[in-house]
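Annex B.
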Amino acid sequence: MSRLSLEALTLAQGGRTVLENISGTFEDGAITALVGANGAGKSTLIQAIMGLLSPLSGQVHCSMPKERRAWLPQQLALDLTFPMSVEELMLSGCWPTHGTFKRYGPQDYRRMHTIMQRLGLSGLAHRPLGELSGGQRQRALLGRTLMQEAELLLLDEPFANVDTHTVEILCDTLREMASAGATVIVVLHDMEQLAQLANCVLLLAGGHGQWVEPETLLERHHAPARRHAHAPFISLNLPDVPPCSTY
Ligand SMILES: Nc1ncnc2c1ncn2[C@@H]1O[C@H](COP(=O)(O)OP(=O)(O)OP(=O)(O)O)[C@@H](O)[C@H]1O
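Metal ABC transporter ATP-binding protein: predicted structure tokens.
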């Protein structure tokens, strides 16, 4: 089943076409890696899926309610001077369903504490975001999407500048969210993480999109088998690869 698909999608930034005629379906419960060189259009596609960028032509079909769609931007895009604690950030995940001014109930706090424990954030509830490590901050941001009960989760390079412990927690949590039926799309550059996480890959290159099986991409790049250690960063001379059979 799928609640998210792209139909002949063409997108532009600043009057210049960035992506052309991209079609495909994101399956519920699958983790799709969005892969491409710098400037290939990964963030542009994410903006369009989130409804923040109107297509030049074509459409994004998304039947998930807006309040269940979550986007984790690149860490560099975050304003760390904004005075907010971990607890406030996580509770703000309730805004899309509760509204901004509704008081949080005991069940919200209970759920938040469970999620904090799961993400290794217990003890950091009152810490300002600006005083967290990159890994702690990324876990708090993912915690917010868990509070939101996101059904569509888009993550832009979530593993950049985070420790290996955090990578493990993030990967486990994303797998659990996908197992529960969420559609997860994650911008990745690292082959090891792609091997561990992705069920499918959407390659963006030269303004076009191509769906491929992760194994095919890994073989082309001589990476180790799935769930094995150390792999190099993707070399992004994107090859002609057969399409992903599931799409
Ligand atoms: N607001 C904007 N105005 C004009 N051009 C833009 C804008 N945002 C992005 N672009 C251009 O659109 C193209 C795609 O950018 P995008 O940020 O989607 O790429 P990306 O694949 O996410 O790159 P990176 O891996 O570096 O984050 C690039 O050429 C970029 O310069």
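Residues 164-179 form the longest helix (16 residues). The chain has eight helices and nine strands. Further annotation is deferred to the next reporting cycle.
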